[in-house]
């Protein structure tokens, strides 16, 4: 095994006591407390890793005992990548909400704080114990039942970061309904498409939302627009968050607080099969409409729970904070299901890092004495730029472990995070994973793995990464680079694309037979460490948000006067990647402020404000091959301002197009 071999090299560097050594930009776990970590040396990591790869079924069976089953499984796994067939813990029976709530109450931890909700306004916060949360979950679960929701029905959740979002998710799993959370910044059109794709029966939303300086995000109004064309929706449950006047459609809309007030507090969890769907979460691909990534109950919960405990070295009394939005997978796995299945205290933050000022994150860490802090590199870059005075007056001594996710972290922000936030005393876990993987696949273990700024380091237990050549050959050895794929399955892996199993196979398993292809490129260095280089397909990563170029192009194309658009990414100081749109207009239409505005509003309407292009260039023509395919490679070079190494352009139908694009003016 490549990784074991390499890890042996590291072993010799990491012997004995933990002392802070920096060697060739390698950082070693340092504090005394690390001695008590779940995995406290690289030797132990190697040992467990080896065991997990040699006997995966045995390994994952022992891990699965961490959760409560009504009935244990008959068979640990049944996987065939050639058929895109993936099952774990076959015929096992469980309930996810039971595991996230009742179980902790039964073991005497009912009074423990489950969720600390920190509002957008620093003066607003709330705490919910496990017992309080269970009552709320049961009540809304009964409301859903009274609205006709049955096991297997889909429920769409379109909300900001308010406690009712987590409560609604847990209520869905209590009664076997499948939730589909739609990120609160998505437009009415996006919401409509997602509701229709999985024919959701109920929508849960809120009156308006509060986020940073925005104090009236029109959630219900957007929902109403979406619902003009969603035949499957029977009812809408509305949470009162701000109390502003909104319209309620009689016979369709009900208030959460009114319905729950007299709802029964009895609601037995439904027995679910391991492979019964738990949730759908839409994510962008390189082509077509967003894919409904489907995760199931048993394997997902085992994986989210185990990775949360081991990678964040979670201990019973820790206060854990992941700053992500629950509208993305990070929030599902590492705000809700991972932490809550472990009985953790998890923080849910409604606001943004720069409101009311750039010290907000550190105020919250100080206020709630956060032990593990997990965020995105883009947030670190934005905060780093504002200087250290926002950090210096805060007491961050509770911090033990720092994490990042969503995009490659570069050396400057890694070092800032380590020094200014972690005071060189908190290991950083740079965690690589995807919506599709359900949980973290490549990451350091905080007390075991020496880290290198910018590397996600080594695979988690049971994870078998490989690098492939373009031809699909496995590239062995170190000091190499290729396409990142997984050779074997793990319990948290997605099971299908909702309603389109063929697309699941085509997207992930058809290009390289027998592997799950991630869409990312990666390097493996001399020590076997992985360095993710980014997407190799037409998926952009804007501030850690995944956006398909095809979706943005489609939205631009809908603006009046637009003939064609091509979208590529370019390096952006804060966002990691920015969106660069090349647009050609119909004959007789001239570029103008008006057309520019109508393109932007079309993107906001079709997708949401987070997909607005950062740069737009109107061009007379786009570079195409003779068969009419747009050569994005060339557009990327122009967007990156790297026009001297354009490469071969002789296959273009009209090579002179390139010259005019280079000369073309940048409008934004
Ligand atoms: C893509 C998945 C899963 C969490 C949030 C994003 C990129 C994710 C890292 C990392 C470099 C990363 C990859 C991946 N990515 N984590 N630590 N280092 N790149 O989930 O929206 O499904 O996006 O995010 O390109 O494929 P997602």
Summarize the structure in words.
The longest helix is centred in the first third of the chain and has 17 residues. An 8-stranded mixed β-sheet has the order 14-13-10-8-9-16-17-25, sandwiched between helices. The N terminus is likely disordered. It contains 20 helices and 32 strands. With 668 residues, it is an alpha/beta fold. Helix 7 crosses helix 8 and helix 10 crosses helix 11. It is globular and about 75 Å long. 5'-O-[(S)-butoxy(hydroxy)phosphoryl]adenosine binds next to helix 11, strand 22, strand 26 and strand 27. 5'-O-[(S)-butoxy(hydroxy)phosphoryl]adenosine (WT7) binds next to helix 11, strand 22, strand 26 and strand 27.
SSE layout and pairings?
Blueprint: H1 2-13, E1 22-23, E2 26-27, H2 42-54, H3 56-64, E3 75-80, E4 85-90, E5 93-94, H4 96-109, E6 113-118, E7 125-129, H5 130-146, E8 154-158, H6 163-175, E9 178-181, H7 188-197, E10 202-206, E11 209-211, E12 214-217, H8 219-226, E13 235-239, E14 253-255, H9 256-261, E15 272-273, E16 277-283, E17 291-296, H10 297-311, E18 319-322, H11 329-341, E19 345-349, H12 360-368, E20 372-375, H13 377-384, H14 389-392, E21 401-405, H15 411-421, E22 428-431, E23 465-468, E24 480-486, E25 496-497, H16 501-508, E26 516-524, E27 530-535, E28 539-542, E29 545-548, H17 549-557, E30 562-572, E31 576-585, H18 593-606, E32 615-618, H19 632-639, H20 656-663
Parallel strand pairs: 6-19, 8-9, 8-10, 9-16, 10-13, 13-14, 18-19, 18-20, 20-21, 21-22, 31-32
Antiparallel strand pairs: 1-2, 3-4, 5-15, 6-7, 11-12, 16-17, 17-25, 23-24, 24-26, 26-27, 28-29, 30-31
Helix pairs in contact: 1-2, 2-3, 4-5, 4-6, 4-11, 5-6, 7-8, 10-11, 13-15, 17-18
Bound molecules: 5'-O-[(S)-butoxy(hydroxy)phosphoryl]adenosine.
């Amino acid at each position: 095994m490549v990784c074991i071999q390499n890890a042996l090299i590291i072993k010799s560097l990491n012997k004995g006591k933990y002392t802070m050594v920096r060697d060739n930009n390698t950082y070693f776990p340092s504090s005394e407390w690390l001695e008590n970590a779940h995995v406290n040396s690289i030797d132990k990591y190697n040992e467990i890793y080896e065991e997990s790869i040699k006997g995966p079924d045995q390994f994952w069976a022992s891990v699965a005992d961490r959760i409560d089953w009504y009935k244990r499984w008959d068979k640990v796994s049944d996987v065939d990548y050639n058929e895109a067939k993936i099952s774990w813990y076959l015929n096992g029976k469980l309930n996810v909400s039971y595991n996230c709530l009742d179980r902790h109450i039964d073991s005497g931890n009912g009074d423990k704080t489950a969720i600390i909700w920190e509002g957008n306004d620093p003066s607003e916060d709330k705490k919910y114990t496990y017992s309080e949360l269970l009552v709320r979950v049961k009540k809304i679960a009964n409301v859903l039942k009274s609205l006709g929701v049955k096991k297997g029905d889909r429920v769409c959740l379109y909300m900001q970061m308010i406690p009712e979002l987590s409560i609604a998710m847990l209520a869905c799993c209590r009664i076997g309904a499948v939730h589909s959370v739609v990120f609160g910044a998505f437009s009415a059109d996006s919401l409509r498409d997602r509701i229709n794709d999985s024919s959701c029966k109920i929508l849960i939303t809120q009156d308006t939302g509060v986020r940073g300086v925005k104090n009236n995000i029109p959630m219900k109004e957007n929902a109403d627009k979406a619902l003009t064309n969603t035949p499957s929706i029977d009812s809408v449950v509305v949470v009162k968050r701000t109390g502003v006047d909104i319209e309620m459609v009689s016979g369709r809309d009900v208030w959460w607080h009114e319905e729950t007030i007299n709802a029964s507090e009895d609601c037995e969890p439904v027995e679910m099969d391991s492979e019964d769907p738990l949730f759908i979460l839409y994510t962008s691909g390189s082509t077509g409409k967003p894919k409904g990534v489907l995760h199931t109950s048993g394997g997902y919960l085992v994986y989210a729970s185990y990775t949360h405990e081991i990678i964040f070295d979670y201990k019973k009394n820790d206060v854990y904070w992941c700053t992500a939005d629950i509208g993305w997978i990070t929030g599902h796995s590492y705000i809700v299901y991972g932490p809550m299945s472990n009985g953790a205290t998890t923080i849910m933050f409604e606001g943004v890092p720069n409101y009311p000022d750039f010290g907000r994150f550190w105020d919250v860490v100080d206020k709630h004495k956060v032990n593990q802090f997990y965020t995105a590199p883009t947030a670190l870059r934005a905060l780093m730029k504002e200087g250290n005075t926002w950090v210096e007056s805060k007491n961050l001594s509770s911090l033990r472990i720092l994490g990042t996710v969503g995009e490659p972290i570069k050396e400057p922000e890694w070092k800032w995070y380590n020094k200014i936030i972690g005071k060189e005393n908190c290991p950083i876990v740079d965690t690589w994973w995807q919506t599709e993987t359900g949980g973290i696949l490549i990451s350091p273990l905080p007390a075991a793995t020496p880290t290198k700024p910018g590397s996600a380091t080594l695979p988690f237990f049971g994870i078998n990464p490989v690098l492939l050549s373009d031809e699909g050959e496995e590239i062995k050895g170190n000091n190499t680079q290729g396409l990142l794929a997984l050779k074997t399955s793990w319990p948290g892996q997605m099971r299908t694309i909702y309603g389109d199993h063929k697309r699941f196979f085509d997207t992930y398993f058809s290009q390289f037979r027998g592997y799950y292809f991630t869409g990312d490129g990666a390097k493996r260095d001399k020590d076997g460490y992985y360095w993710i280089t980014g997407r190799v397909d037409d998926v952009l990563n804007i501030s850690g948000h995944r956006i398909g170029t095809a979706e943005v192009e489609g939205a631009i194309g809908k603006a009046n006067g637009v003939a064609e658009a091509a979208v590529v990414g370019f390096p952006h100081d804060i966002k990691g990647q920015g969106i660069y749109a090349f647009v050609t207009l119909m004959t007789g239409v001239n570029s103008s402020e008006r057309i520019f505005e109508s393109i932007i509003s079309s993107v906001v309407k079709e997708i949401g404000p987070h997909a607005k292009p950062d740069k737009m260039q109107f061009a007379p023509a786009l570079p195409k091959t003779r068969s009419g395919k747009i050569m994005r490679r060339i557009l990327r070079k122009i967007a990156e301002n790297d026009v001297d190494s354009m490469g071969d352009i002789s296959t273009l139908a009209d090579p002179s197009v390139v010259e005019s694009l280079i000369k073309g003016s940048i409008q934004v």
